[in-house]
Amino acid sequence: MALLPFALAVPAVMSAAQVADDPLAEPRLQVCLNGEWLRHVGADVATVPAGGWEPVRVPEDPFSAAKGSAWFRLDFVVPERFTAPDRRVLLRFVRVRHYARVLVNGRQCGENYGARAPFEVDITSAVRSGELNRLEVWVHDCSGAYAAPGKTIDDLETLKRLSTLQGYREQATIAEDVLLLSRPELHVADVLIMPSVREGKLSIRLGVTNESGRDRSVRLTNRVVLGDREVLRLPPATATVGAGGTVSLELSQPWADPRLWGYPPHGEPILYHLETKLGDDDRLVTRFGFREVWTEGDRMVLNGRDLKVLGYWVPEGSGRSVWTLRMAAIQSAGCNAIHNHAEPREPGFYDVADELGLLVWDAGYCGGPLGTTANMSDAAFPDVLPELEQQYPRWAQTVANHPSVVLLMMECLYNEEAAVRLGEAYRSVDPTRLIHRGGGMVRPMDLAAYASNFEMNEPDPLVNIRRSWETWGRSLRTFDGQPVPVVNKEIWYKVDWNHAPTAEAFAQATAEAVDYLREQGLPGFILYGQAAFRARPPHEQPIGWPSASGEGQHARETRTGGLSWFPPDFVNFFDPERPAFEPLPVAAAMREAGARYLGHDVNVAATRRPEVLVTVTRDGEPVADAYVYAVPVRGVVANPVGMRTDRQGIAWFALRDPGTYRFLCRGANRWESVTLDAPLQALDRQHGGEGPLLSCRLPV
Hints:
- This protein is an alpha+beta fold.
- The chain folds into four domains: 8-26 and 611-699, Carboxypeptidase-like, regulatory domain (Immunoglobulin-like); 35-176, Jelly Rolls, CATH 2.60.120; 184-288, Immunoglobulins (Immunoglobulin-like), CATH 2.60.40.10; 303-598, TIM Barrel (Alpha-Beta Barrel).
- Helices cover 14% and strands 36% of the residues.
- Strand 24 and strand 25 (282-288) form a beta hairpin.
- It is globular, with a radius of gyration of 25 Å.
C-alpha cells in the first residue's frame, strides 16, 4: 500500500457561511480543469473514436504519455457568469506535445504547433452556458505534417531540433495544466514590469486589447501592494482603443525605498503585486520582485552587487510540492541558481524559484550533447528557426515578470544565427534579461556553461569518481565581435570510500575546480550535478497523492522526468521515517567551496506556500466536477482562481500567496463558502514530503 506523505491539518481560523450575492463579480475568472479525463490512443484526426476510451489524469505524467497520436476528452460546464455580455471564454493550454487540434461540441476552435509556449483558444461561439460541453483535443507528436505549419518534415535530425533531443519528440500528450478562462472583451492583454535599481524607479509596459465591435476609451490605474498594503501608486493614463485593436502604454514612477528581491546579500525573496484596472471593465494582478540585473564589463551585477552563479541542473519535474523540496535541496548544497534545460518549465517552477530566492538560468532549447549535433545543425535550422521564432516571444511573455529569471542560455542552439535571431525574438518582448545586445552576445553568456558531472550512480561505496570541467565552446562572438575563448580542464579523482576521508576528498576536488574558474577571471558558471543527494530507487514506494485535482503533473514515480537515463530523484516523498533530502559528502563540499567562490553562503529555504484541500459534499457525499473558487479576503491582493473537484470531491489549491481566503462553491440555488487562514507553512526537511496540508469541508 502506498504511503501518503501529505498529512492534513485544520486551519487556525475557519468559518462557513451562505453567500447571498454573486461573490464572483470579478472581471477575470479562471478554473483549472486538471483531473480525470478520457483518452484514446492512436486514432486518426479525421474521426472522433466512438469507443475505446480509458481514464487518464491530465496533465499526464511522462511515463504514461502516448506515442504518435491520441484523443483526449472532457465533459465540462461553463458557468453562466463566464458567458455574460461583452465577455470571451477561452481555454489555455500550458503545454501540449507537440501538435494540438481543439474541438468544443464538435466544432474546431483552434490548433497549435510546438511545446515551448502556452496557447489559448477562443471557444465563446462554441460553448453552451450552464450546460455540459464536450471538449476533445487531438494531439500528435513532432513528425510529418504536424511538425510545423504548412510543412511535412520527416528528417529525424530536423525533428529532434524542432522538438528537443530530450526524448519528447515522440510524445503525444497534454503535458501541463488546462485552464478555463473568462475575461472582458476590453482587457489588459499583457504587462511587463521593469524595475530599475540604478534609476530608483518602477516602469511598466501595458497592452490593452479591445475585442468588441466599437471603439473604447479607457482610463488605467496602477498601484503596487505588499500583502494588501499599498506602497506605490503610478500616474493614471487614458487611451482610446479601436475596435479589434490593441494599444501599448508605458508608465513609470520613482520609488525610493523598495525592498529588493534576491537572496542575501543581494536582497530577499520579497514579492510585490501590481494591480492594474481599466475602470470597471478589467482588473489584473501581476506578481513581481523589484530587482535589476546588468553587466559591467565582464561582470554580472544583481542589485548593485557582483553576481556569480553556482547552479544545479534539474531538467524535469512538475507541481509545487515537487519543486519546493527540490529547490530547497539545491540551496542546501550552497547553490544560488537552478538551470532549466531543453524547454521552458511549467508556471509552478518559476513561482517557487521566486518565492525561495533562487536564481533561474533559463533555456528553451536543447540541440543535444556537444559533439553529436555541432556538425549537423546548420542544415536543420532553416526549417526549425521560423517556427521557434513564433514560440520564443510567447515563452518570453509567460516568464517576463518572474524576478528569478536572470539569465537566458542560448548555447545549446549550436548555431550562431539561431542564437542571435531567437535572442532577438525573446528580447522583443522582454529586454530585461541578460541574453545579447545588438548583434552580439553579452560577455558572461559568451563564457558559456561550465559543467561538473558527478558520476555517482553506482552503489556505495563509490570507488571511481570523475569530475570534468569544460566550457561548451561554440562559434559565438562577444558583443565587440571578438571570438569566444574556449578553455578546457579535466580533474580526475579516485576515492576509496572504505579508506579515504570522503568529505575532505570531495572538498579538495571541488575547491580545485572552483579555484581554477576564479583564476580564469570568469564571472559565473553553472554546476551540473545530478547525484549530490542520496536517492531512493523509484520502485520502493509509489507516491500517494491526496487528490487527482490540483496543478501540475502527479508523477507515478520518484524519478526525474520520463526518460530512463535520468538518475533517481534526490527528494523523498514517500517515506516519513527518512529526511526529505539527504546530502552526500559531495553536497557539503559543494557548499563549502561554493561559499568561497560566491563570496557568501546561501540560506536554505525554511518555508513553503500554503496548500489547501477543499472537500465539497452534498448530504455527506462527495461532489465530483464541482468548481471551487479561492477569493482573497485579507493579507493579499490577487485575482480569484478556481479548481475542479475530483471523484472524492476534493479541490487541491496550491496558493501562490499566504493570506485569508474565502473558498466558494455554487450549490443548487445559492453560493456556499468557507473562510480560512492560509499562512506560510514550515518546510519539513526532517521527514518525507512537505508536511501537513490545510483542509476544510464545504457542504453545498
